[in-house]
Amino acid sequence: MRLLRAIFVWCNLFGVFELSFGAKERNYEFDVEYIYKKPDCLEHVVMGINGQFPGPTIRAEVGDTLVINVTNKLSTEGTVIHWHGIRQRGTPWADGTAAISQCAINPGETFQYKFEVDKSGTYFYHGHYGMQRAAGLYGSLIVDLPKSQREPFHYDGEFNLLLSDLWHTSSHEQEVGLSSAPMRWIGEPQVYTFNFLYIQKDTSCSFNLLLFY
Ligand SMILES: [Cu+2]
């Protein structure tokens, strides 16, 4: 019995040691700003991160801690980023929902999000203030199993799909229309985006599908 208990304690200790030994802290600097991009054949102002639209992909392993310093480089608006699907156990203040878990980050200020990713999956992050997600503030967040664990299925490759839609009117114009009386409906989006690919719905442009980069 004593031997069994010793083995149990040893395994537990080893498990804890292995978990903390393998987990990493991953650091990101995100500068949120409006940028000019040409997601279709027309130039638009979109929300970007570090000059990219969609924002950079975050990739981590289960047990890792993400440390993301988000700097608001917008001149007149607050911003936050919500980590969609992340459980935020023990870190509810890092959930990134304006007026719920935090005040919006003021222009020129930086907020540090620090949280653990405790479950594998394909997630995404997005702006959670006003119409900022529709303006383009989003990106992928992928949490892999630790290398020591096998996924329960086989596959030949991996392709991450990030779907969204895009209007030719600005998010500010959409917001004013939606809150007007009578309301002005924003209508259907003009463009569907698939990561760096897009499909244009109208035919005023000379192409319908284009490789974005
Ligand atoms: Cu969400």
Automatic annotation (TrEMBL):
User: Its domain of life?
Assistant: Eukaryota
Which GO terms fall under molecular function for this chain's record?
copper ion binding; L-ascorbate oxidase activity
Full protein name = Putative L-ascorbate oxidase
- Where does the record place the Plastocyanin-like domain? 32-146
Q: Does the keyword Lipid metabolism apply?
A: no
Which enzyme class?
Answer: oxidoreductase
| Signal sequence, start to end | 1-22
Source species of the chain: Medicago truncatula
Family in the record: Belongs to the multicopper oxidase family.
InterPro entries noted in UniProt: Cu-oxidase-like_N, Cu-oxidase_fam, Cupredoxin
Keywords tagged on the record? Copper, Metal-binding, Oxidoreductase, Signal
The upper taxonomy is: Eukaryota, Viridiplantae, Streptophyta, Embryophyta, Tracheophyta
Q: What is its EC number?
A: 1.10.3.3
